[in-house]
Design brief:
alpha/beta, Rossmann fold, 17% strand, 3 domains, six-stranded parallel β-sheet
């Protein structure tokens, strides 16, 4: 077998594992990798303008395709700039492999009592270890094939997540006798589990709900889940990370629950007598601070592939430790199909709650464009959109409350990390994962400025990303927090903050831009956005500075008591 250069091996192995894009910002310690990718010519090398953007794009690519997204960075600042995106992958269960270049082995400080020996030498493995499934420092060329195979397998195994490989420059240029197409170890057989207790509790329930989280998508089980839902006939509430698990118009879809959940969905959950939790961590953004009230009056069966997530915050749940790919077929085998009228009365009650508390009425009285109404307009057109991507802030909550996501469409946002700046790079990753299909980005003015430089990436790649900026001229979510707890002292959110005219910024990058300020202009503005589905465009939607994201759980009270009708009794800690 002829010897091959390590980076040539890596480039071929990545292609053989299904990778079609690698996101990166060039740097000295990855030049061998970039050269090998270029010479082989089978993987698109996507150059971004900040390594954080590369990480967020890889995150979205992994979510869209189910193949680990790949991002690369040079040593030192390049590697450390990946960390926020790596953490986002870790908390949101996105499969990804990150490859960082490192200085030559003879330039590493080792055990010397010094801070640094080689230029830009940085121990990225130690920094990344807490927010990866594994972070490995490659020490010899012979380790590369095994580490690379293990990295891709581990990124997908169990609860998906990121893996990091740190490869010294001299290892990258070494020669090794090895084939890039190595056999993959077969997965172990799933273990059986007892569902008789769950079946009995569900059969006794009058007001059951399924609560689904990001684990449905992370386990690639959305289609199977939809079949299970229709067999059971049980209404479904979802977390922020599962907006797209059921289509907006599905008759069993209730809505989003949690801190900024749809009011009717939170009320329905508070009235339920049975809850089957699938792939959701039940964190404070879903349950509110009153976990006792969340649990009271209902049996909760919690399914998760990680035992530590069950009975972590909400105590007294019946634990089922299982991957959803194994659990859902077992559930179908255990439980018989419900009669069409089994929960008709309960579904009617939920429908009445939705009619009484529509999302579009939460901001009645707010001046100008109602963001919930606008987002219904934006997404209710039936256009062929591959994904809706939301950045982080008030607009993220309005989007999750009101976007009408279709059957074949995805919704992606940064949940656990909650990082502003996620949206634009993630939209790039989503667009490259669904060639020929437009992607819609919903961003706020604050978060958009965190990675605004990636407009150039969209222009260079001619990506059909439709950008909608809900511009309230402030950091709205924190401003709302200051309104509640700091007597309206808006330091660094409204006071001492500014934003440009984003339509003018778009024009500077060569993207058509438009601004809308009045509700009666909204429909025409949406039509303008879609005038050419194949080209990027930016629509700036001006929102009142003091528009709040409502409803919102009144902190310290049960999930059913939401602002502005109920007021918090203690300060939020998150």
């Amino acid at each position: 077998m002829p010897a091959v250069k390590i980076t040539d091996y890596i480039a071929a192995a990545l292609f053989n594992k299904g990778v079609r894009q690698v996101f990166q910002l060039s740097g000295g310690m990855i030049t061998h990798l970039l050269d090998s990718l270029h010479l082989q010519g089978r993987i698109e090398v996507v150059s971004v303008h900040h390594e954080q953007a590369a990480a967020f794009a890889a995150d979205a690519c992994g979510r869209m395709t189910g193949i680990p997204g790949v991002a690369m960075a040079t040593s030192g600042p390049g590697a450390t700039n990946l960390l926020t995106g790596i953490g986002s992958c870790y908390f949101d269960s996105s499969p990804a492999v990150f490859i960082t270049g490192q200085v030559n082995r003879n330039e590493q400080k080792g055990d010397r009592k010094i801070r640094q020996l080689g230029f830009q030498e940085t121990d990225i493995v130690a920094m990344a270890a807490p927010i990866t499934k594994a972070a490995w420092k490659v020490e010899t060329p012979e380790q590369v094939p095994d580490f690379l195979d293990r990295a891709f397998a581990l990124a997908l195994e169990g609860r998906p997540g990121p893996v990091l490989l740190d490869i010294p420059m001299d290892v990258q240029r070494s020669l090794l006798e090895v084939s890039p197409d190595r056999p993959i170890e077969p997965a172990s057989a799933p273990q059986p589990f007892d569902l008789r207790g769950l079946r009995s509790a569900l059969e006794a329930a009058q007001r059951p709900l399924l609560l689904v989280g990001g684990g449905i998508r992370a386990s690639r089980c959305a289609d199977v889940f939809r079949g299970v839902v229709e067999m059971l006939g049980v209404p479904v509430v979802h977390s922020l990370m599962a907006v797209d698990v059921l289509p907006f118009a599905h008759p069993l879809r209730v809505g989003m629950i949690g801190t900024y959940g749809n009011r009717w969905a939170n009320l329905a959950l508070s009235q339920s007598d049975f809850l089957l939790v699938l792939g959701s961590r039940l964190d404070v953004r879903q349950t509110g601070s009153r976990t006792d009230a969340f649990k009271a009056g209902r049996a909760i069966f919690h399914v998760d592939c990680e035992a530590g997530e069950i009975n972590n915050r909400v105590a007294g749940c019946e634990a089922i430790v299982a991957g959803l790919a194994e659990f859902l077929p077992a559930l179908c085998a255990e439980i018989t199909k419900a009669s069409p009228n089994r929960y008709a009365g309960w579904r009617r009650e939920i429908s009445e709650l939705r009619d009484k508390w529509p999302d579009t009425a939460e901001l009645n009285g707010t001046a100008g464009i109602n963001p919930n109404c606008f987002l219904h307009q934006l997404s209710g057109t039936g256009r062929r959109v591959a994904a809706y991507v939301a950045d982080v802030g008030q607009h993220q909550m309005w989007a999750a409350q009101s976007l009408e996501v279709g059957e074949k469409q995805r919704f992606m946002t940064s949940g656990g990390m909650g990082s502003m700046g996620f949206g634009l790079p993630a939209a790039i990753g989503a667009a490259l994962s669904a060639p020929g299909q437009p992607v819609v980005l919903v961003a706020g003015d604050g978060g958009f400025q965190c990675n605004i430089q990636e407009l150039q990436t969209i222009v260079r790649l001619k990506l059909p990303v439709k950008i909608v900026i809900l511009n309230n001229l402030c950091h709205g979510m924190v401003r709302q927090f200051q309104e509640s707890y700091f007597e309206g002292r808006y330091i660094s959110t409204y006071w001492g903050y500014s934003a440009p005219d984003f339509a003018a910024v778009a024009a500077a990058y060569g993207i058509e831009g438009k601004t809308v300020t009045q509700p009666e202009q909204s429909a025409a503005a949406v039509d303008w956005l879609w005038a050419d589905p194949e080209k990027p465009a930016l629509l700036q939607v001006m929102i009142d500075v003091f528009a709040n994201a409502y409803p919102k759980i009144a902190f310290g009270k049960p999930i059913s008591e939401m602002e502005p009708l109920s007021q918090p009794i203690e300060m939020e800690s998150t």
